[in-house]
Each structure stands twice: as structure tokens, then as C-alpha cells.
Amino acid sequence: MNASELQDIIAWMIDGARSAPTPPQMMAECSERLVRAGLPIWRVGVFVRTLHPEIYGRSFFWTHGGRVETGTVDHKILDSPEFAVSPLAPVFRQGVEVRARFDDPASARFPIVEDLRAEGATDYVAVPLINTDGFVNASTWTTRQPGGFTEEQLSAIRSIAVPLARYIEIVTLRRTASLLLDTYVGNRAGEKILGGQIRRGHADTMDAAIWLSDLRGFTALSDRLPAETVVEILNLYFDCQVSAIRANGGEVLKFMGDGLLAVFPVDDYVGDEAEVCSRVLEAARESRAGVKALQFPNGDDVERFRFGVALHLGRVLYGNIGGGDRLDFTCIGPAVNLAARLEKIASRLGRTVVASERFAGICDGGWSDLGEFPVAGFSRAARVYGLHDEISAAAN
């Protein structure tokens, strides 16, 4: 093992592995440089836990002569029989190093040993990658060298683990920040916040189609069902909308109890007003079908979900609003206020989908003129439109 080259690799990692701009590229370059320095690694794995509601962790596998392969696992992995007998279990749970020499009968307690032995491996070591706060990720190192790793080579692996842990911690923190912002404020808002738009009052104007929806009868529903059941119902209900909104270019900005506010930006990149409004209407139809198919038990009966959504097109103010150091990235303006009023009108009319005159005039979706209605806070009445294919519940 060339000590000088090893130190160069460690220095390169401490400096941020600048010649490898992505984690897979960093892993490939680091592994290949270690091989050239005399470390006989055949396969390297890195396992990074994430702060994500659906994904427990990500994996990166480099194999000598091959590419870096990436993957993800969900939270169910922790309760799986495979994880219980994996060398990684004690690494994650106790932060300890685990070695499996393939000529040691005791290593047979790990089923992965037989799989790797069949591929010619002779030694395997799992090394914890410990963050500055004690949080543990893991790395695995496998060789085909006869007799396995020497003590000098194991020492080199341990020395690499330290800067590798720091690199992973930095990259993961930024990725976690991005994922959390995407999860809680949306992708577009998250990009702006990470880009430095964090001061109160810092806002932009943009043209957007506005979506404001509400679950009908939610107050009565909350009163007669256990809180846990209400949460489950809301999650099912929002699932029907969020997937349709995101698939059609929208961004969910806010959940307000049973309400949902989303925007579909209009610009040269995503398309003109007609194109954007057409996708908004498609999302509304998909959501309507999804919600209609849902049902929940209420005693001996089964109730259907009922919801309404108002669609409008206008200019909004999009940015940071709040008090002190507690801010919310959202959109405001008369256009949003009108959408909120239209949603209340939809409820009174028993309609699922209603649109403003401007939205319906741009989007050819088969609209019926439902008439003019006074709108609280606005000097003029608003003309409201509903879909031809929808019969008002109030007319039944």
C-alpha cells in the first residue's frame, strides 16, 4: 500500500473531491485511486440513511471494472429477515466494525458470505461512517486477495472511512435540506429558499393557475370519528390530489386542515396559459375520479368522499410571509382570494369542479355557465362555470 498516494486521496476527499461532482462519480474515482495505490478492493458499498418519509436509505455499489450502481430501500427494511442477519445491522445499531473472513467458520452466520464467496471473494469488512453528531452510516469493503485483507490494508480502509464520513455528512445535509424543503414547501419554493430567498417580504410576482380544494363535511367527520381515523382519511384524500397535481406540472404550497392550495406556474418554460390550464383541468378530473373511488367505514355504513376544487388564473405574489423568524413560503393576492371564494360557491352549488370566467375562457373543457355570484371582498360579482359532465348535487 503506497502511503503517499493514500494521503493524497485523503486530502482530495477533505477538499471535497472536487474533480468528482456527484456522489457516484466520487465513489468511482476514490475506489479506482485506492486500487492504483495498492488496496486490493474488489467491491465497495456505501449505505447512507436519509431523512425522508418513504425512503430509509440509499446504497452505492462500486465493483472493480464496473460502474457505480445506486438504489434505495424503504423503512420496511428494518423489520425484514434479511436485515436481521446482515453484517450491517450491528454497524447501524451499535456503530461497530464487523469483519467476515471467508476462511472463518464463524462468518457463516451472515448469509451474504456465501453469496460473495461464490463470486470469488475472500474477505469482507463493514466499517461505520460516523457523523459529527454520532449518526451512523456504513461502508463495506470486499476483496478477492488470497488470505483476505492484511492489517495494513484494514488500517488504510479505516483511515479512508473518516474523510468519507465527512464528505457523506456534508452531501447528505444538503440533500436532506433539499428533500425536506421539497416535502414541506414544494420543489419550486424549495429551490428559491436554498438559493437564498429567505428574508421576510422577499417575494416575486408570477402568473399561475390556482387550485384551491376542500373536503366536504370535514368538520362533522372530525367530530364523530377517532383522530387517528381522520388523519388516515385525510392522507388518502390528499394522495388523490397531490399525485395528479405534480404529474401535471403543479406545486402543492399548503395543506390547511382539509384544504389544499396549489399553483401551476405559467411561463415560457412550462407553456402558455391554454396549455397550463389544460393540464390543471386534467389534474382536476384525475383527482375527481380518485376521490370518487375512495370510501371509508362509518359504523355499519360506508360513506363516500366528497370534495370541491376551484380553478382560477391570475397574478400572485409568491414569497416569504410571516412574523419574526417564523416564515411561510406561500402565495397571496386577489387571485388567490377569488379562488378561495369560488371554492365556497362550489360547496353551495354541490359542484366538484368550478372555474372562474377567465380560467374557463382560456381552457376549453366543456363548461356550463352557472351564473353570477356576489363575492365577499370584491366589488363585482363573479361569473362561475362548472363542467358539463357534472350534475350538481344540489339539483338531486
Automatic annotation (TrEMBL):
> Which Pfam families does this one have?
Guanylate_cyc
Q: Which superkingdom is the protein from?
A: Bacteria
Name of the protein this chain belongs to: Adenylate/guanylate cyclase domain-containing protein
What PANTHER family does UniProt report for this protein, alphabetically? ADENYLATE CYCLASE, TERMINAL-DIFFERENTIATION SPECIFIC-RELATED, BLR2264 PROTEIN
Q: Which residues form the Guanylate cyclase domain?
A: 209-343
Q: Which PROSITE patterns does this chain map to? A: GUANYLATE_CYCLASE_2
